[in-house]
Design brief:
This protein is mainly alpha-helical. Helices cover 52% and strands 9% of the residues. Strands 3-4-13 form a 3-stranded antiparallel β-sheet, with no helix packed on it. Helix 10 packs antiparallel against helix 11, helix 27 packs parallel to helix 29 and helix 31 packs across helix 34. The two termini are 63 Å apart. The structure holds S-adenosylmethionine. The site of S-adenosylmethionine (SAM) has 19 residues, from strand 4 and helix 20.
Length: 809
């Protein structure tokens, strides 16, 4: 990108940078003409879009090399590395490659199955054996491995079948004898045990049985444009929206860890695309839905019919059991190809990327997402033939979704134009004349990119990390084996939800958006009165950042100035979050620095906007101040001189020297940061702890008691205390941090639930029965945000509940 940008001459750069939606086609076409005559551009595009020589094409020698490495790791017992090598080998192995008369992919599945069994991933091992047998039904080693894993799963009947078949297929006499002796042992086990049947169906992807029962309507307001509003009173935790993405793509950093279709974490037996080396999927279902070029394995071997008769007789003889009579059906069930192919109307999102070219890996996620939207539109056009050209195929996006082209910074405009032209060239390899490359099509993709910018949602997953005292730390304070849970949200994908994009943002949202698989779900987090707008947070919230930081983020990321209530009305959180303590330590007032005050001043002006001579207004203001707690930190009805200069306490008017306060705070933070580094390295010395403890005392005298700084420092101490095994202190610091967060976010915010996960796990480790209350409270908040999906989105909740019950018993 930088290379291409640097080649654009200044006059053209200026023209593109200052273009508006009206003169966009002219700017696009001028830039396109320039690039088409540029050799470097042609070379870059050729590299990105080349199919046969692309980096993502299957590659037999790379696969063999990785297989070899995997074998070496396996031989020396390094199963984790062996597993990774076999998975990478499967990713690049062509489906028709053979090695010693055996299909290479089948061999790799069997090798990986052996590792998975060693690592005790039994169901994953079973699935890999099935995959090998679906390619080559007469593969003795695959039947053998299947038999062995079925023994581990105590599925003895299947194990008898599998090993008998393996013995029948095995060519060497020695091999046959070995299997026979193993069979004898299994037969004994079979006779002694009652056989259970292990279900090996793939994961159920149905996400929600709960229907959406409320009616919403689209409303328009002058400051936010269209938005959604309720048509009736809606109780809290009500499901208000559920939607599948129009288009979705995985984020780069999750390509190796999450399924490229459903975005759930990959299991140990992840499967690759059959014809390129880009995606990994968790199941055949997801692979089928995403769709590649669907190459089947040409070496498919089936078992000859004649084998069945002898084999059935043999099994009947060794088992003396009439129950083994449908061998043919058994084999058919296992060896049947279980790739799931959706109906003919289904549009495959990965198909156009699956040609070996590496542009889908190299270009940024939002550009790949734009590619998926264009591809879906073209495929849709094939189904509905009366849509004429690109204007037609992108008609929904061009006319229905808002965009920010006029507001985006000049540099970003140039980047969008270059990406649009590059993307068009890459997509043309799949769509030829269906996708003309000209100024009109390029400008439409530029608009599409800016629509993605303001309308796409980040798909997130909740992740809980456990940490406890380091082994080497001499724990002489408590004997508790603390295992503390930390919850974090990680971004895994980016998607466009067409109806979901009508919801506006608020920094004090009344709906919560979350994802199951790739499905978007929205729920009210409190009671919503009829006619009220329903708004979610696009990222920043009151309590998380102060107002100026939220405004900046929304302008930078989404190109709009937030008009929500959190950014236009005074609230206690914005006043205290980055506030200094009053010099009079007995005073609870806040002292604001210049940057915060400038932003708050605007809101404070609105606060005083009511005419001076209005007799009822001041009382109203007082009521409001005391009701939301503002009165305890700022006396906004008093003299307005406080509002003019930074450094004065908003309650008593005392002056604080902010320059020296900033310097003292920076110094104190050096020691807290040192403690954070020590936590990361899990090496906490008493000297580091002591210095940080002194600094915490200093911070408490510098910052306001409800400030984020103090909350963060308390949280750091909670973690450190946990690691050194001082659970009493960990609990107290965790409680202190929660108290501050309650002031910043409110009592029932999801952030409080995340902190309660920490607190309750500390309490559980201490055997403290108060953990039951903490867990009930966090479960109630989770219920409010996730309703019936609370356990599904956060399975750790069940674990906590179980342990709390044990404690009560
Ligand atoms: C995903 S769209 C929401 C629907 C949009 N209002 C429309 O008419 O299509 C995001 C855009 O809505 C507007 N918007 C959303 N929340 C806003 C807010 N809190 N303040 C101002 N504008 C907002 C901005 O123009 C933003 O770029």
């Amino acid at each position: 990108m930088e290379k291409l940008k640097s080649l654009v001459p200044n006059n053209l750069r200026r023209m593109v940078a200052h273009s508006t939606p009206d003169d966009l086609p002219f700017a696009s076409s001028s830039l396109l003409d320039f690039f088409l005559n540029l050799l470097q551009f042609q070379q870059i595009v050729r590299d990105l879009a080349a199919q046969e020589s692309g980096l993502c094409v299957k590659n037999i020698s790379a696969a063999l090399e990785l297989k070899q490495k995997g074998n070496q790791y396996y031989a020396c017992g390094d199963y984790a590395h062996a597993l990774s090598c076999y998975t990478q080998a499967l990713r690049v192995a062509p489906s028709d490659a053979n090695e010693m008369d055996r299909n290479l992919v089948a061999t790799l599945y069997v090798n990986r199955a052996s590792v998975l069994q060693k690592m005790d991933h039994l169901m994953e091992c079973l699935r890999d054996c099935n995959r090998a047998l679906q390619i080559s039904a007469s593969y003795a080693k695959a039947w053998y491995r299947r038999g062995k894993v079925n023994v581990s799963l105590k599925n003895y009947k299947d194990a008898v079948y599998d090993l008998s078949i393996a013995k029948n297929m095995e060519l060497s006499l020695g091999g046959k004898r070995q299997i026979e002796s193993e069979l004898k042992i299994i037969l004994d086990q079979y006779k002694r045990a009652s056989n259970k049947v292990v279900q090996h169906t793939e994961s159920n992807l149905k996400v929600s049985e709960e229907p959406v029962q409320v009616k919403l309507r689209c409303v328009t307001s002058p400051d936010k444009g269209r938005g959604m509003a309720s048509q009736c009173d809606i109780p809290e935790a009500t499901l208000v929206h559920i939607e599948e993405p129009y288009a979705m793509t995985i984020l780069k950093q999750c390509r190796e860890t999450h399924c490229h279709y459903c975005l759930n974490e990959l299991p140990a037996d992840a499967i690759p695309c059959t014809s390129c080396s880009i995606p990994l999927y968790c199941s055949h279902h997801c692979r089928g839905q995403a769709g590649g070029q669907f190459k089947s394995h040409p070496m498919k071997h089936n078992i000859k019919e004649s084998h069945f008769n002898n084999l059935e007789e043999y099994i009947a003889r060794i088992t003396l059991d009439n129950d083994f009579n449908n061998l043919e059906e058994y084999i058919a069930q296992i060896t049947l190809d279980n790739d799931f192919y959706p109906d003919v109307e289904h549009i495959f999102e990965h198909k156009h990327e699956c040609q070996g070219a590496h542009w889908p890996v190299v270009l940024p996620s939002d550009i790949v997402l734009a590619g998926r939207i264009v591809a879906k539109s073209i495929e849709g056009k094939r189904v509905c033939k009366d849509v004429p050209n690109l204007t037609g195929i992108l008609v929904y996006f061009l006319s229905e979704l808002s965009h920010s082209y006029s507001q985006i910074p000049p540099e970003s405009k140039l980047e969008s134009h270059i990406y649009a032209i590059v993307l068009l060239h890459c997509l043309q390899h799949s769509y030829g004349s269906e996708l003309p490359i000209n100024g009109a099509s390029a400008s439409q993709i530029v608009i599409l990119i800016s629509q993605i910018r303001v309308n796409s949602l980040a798909i997130v997953r909740m992740k809980s990390n456990d940490y406890g005292p380091s082994d080497q730390f001499d724990n002489n304070i408590s004997s508790g084996s603390a295992l503390i849970s930390n919850v974090e949200q990680i971004r895994v994908g980016q998607a466009i939800y067409t109806a979901g994009s009508l919801y506006n943002h608020s920094c004090q949202p009344n709906i919560h958006a979350y994802f199951l698989s790739r499905t978007l779900i929205m729920r009210t987090t409190g009671f919503v009165a009829s006619g009220c707008p329903l708004e979610l947070s696009y990222g920043p919230q009151v309590g998380q950042w102060d107002c100026k930081d939220r405004l900046k983020f929304l302008e930078d990321e989404y190109c709009f100035r937030c008009q929500c209530s959190g950014c236009s009305k005074v609230n206690i959180s914005d006043l205290v979050i980055n506030a200094f303590h009053c010099v009079d330590l007995k005073c609870s007032g806040v002292v604001l620095d210049n940057s915060v005050l400038n932003c708050e001043k605007q809101k404070l002006k609105n606060f005083f906007a009511i005419p001076e001579d209005s007799s009822s207004a001041p009382n109203l203001q007082v009521c409001r101040c005391s009701s939301d707690g503002i009165g305890s930190v700022a006396n906004l009805e008093a003299k307005r001189t406080y509002l003019v200069d930074p450094g004065y306490c908003l309650k008593c008017g005392s002056y604080r020297d902010l320059a020296s306060s900033h310097a003292a705070a920076d110094e104190a933070w050096i020691y807290i940061k040192r403690l954070q580094d020590a936590i990361f390295l899990k090496e906490i010395s008493s000297a580091v702890l002591l210095d940080a403890s002194r600094s915490l005392g200093q911070l408490r005298s510098i910052f306001h008691a409800y400030s984020k700084s103090i909350a963060e420092a308390e949280d750091t101490f909670a973690q450190a205390s946990c690691l050194v095994g001082d659970l009493h202190s960990a609990r107290d610091h965790c409680k202190a941090s929660i108290e501050i967060l309650e002031k910043l976010y409110g009592h029932n915010h999801i952030v409080i639930a995340y902190e309660l996960v920490k607190l309750s796990s500390i309490q559980l480790s201490m055997g403290d029965k108060n953990s039951v209350d903490s867990i009930s409270r966090l479960a109630a908040i989770f219920l409010r945000y996730y309703g019936t999906h609370a356990d599904k989105t956060f399975p750790h909740l069940q674990f906590l509940r179980r342990h709390a019950l044990k404690l009560v018993d």
